[in-house]
Amino acid sequence: MGSLTSKVSKALSSWKNCPARIAMIGLDGAGKTTILYRFKMNETLTTIPTVGFNVETLSPMKGLTLTVWDMGGQDRMRPLWRMYLRGTDGVIFVVDSADLERIQEAKEELMRVLDTPEMRNVPLVVVANKQDLPGAADSSRIAKYLGLHQMVSRRWVIHDACATNGHGIGESMESLAKIVKEFKSKHR
Ligand code: G3D
Ligand code: MG
Description:
Number of strands: 7
Structural class: alpha/beta
Shape: globular
Bound molecules: guanosine-3'-monophosphate-5'-diphosphate, magnesium ion
CATH superfamily: P-loop containing nucleotide triphosphate hydrolases
Strand order of the largest sheet: 2-3-4-1-5-6-7
């Protein structure tokens, strides 16, 4: 596993006193697995080999439970999502900022998840990944493409990032810790 930068490490260790369940989602190829490699994995809890639905549950740090899966083009699997989303305290949505051909698809998938009753008010961190690639849209453009400004009853934050060099990952995790704690103190 990749080494922990101090920022990522600090943000992750703050979960010890505030256990949380986080869903990390995004289209395939967005960079989820690459981000996970930036965390030191204490344990992989389960990988459930459902045909056509590869969901991983892992705990990079005491108190933090992450469920991770690829979205897109799998309508049959949507009923399963809801099962995994129950009790979720926060969402990390990872976007390939250089793949504007699929940004509309990314938006639709994100909205499908956020529109489920389980996800009411649950805060969102968007990682505008792959900023190193030519033609990547910055986080303010990605926010527009995803329609984030239209979300009124949900806290959201977006960060520019590059998972391959770690830029923005610590900041994203810090924001996540902050808004999830606020959410839990109000709604849980
Ligand atoms: P996923 O888990 O969301 O499906 P991955 O996505 O983490 O497997 O990443 C898909 C590909 O994008 C990988 O390349 C990975 O190295 C690359 N990638 C992830 N983040 C970045 C980034 O910030 N910048 C660039 N340039 N590439 C990134 P491969 O070649 O292994 O398929
Ligand atoms: Mg992956």
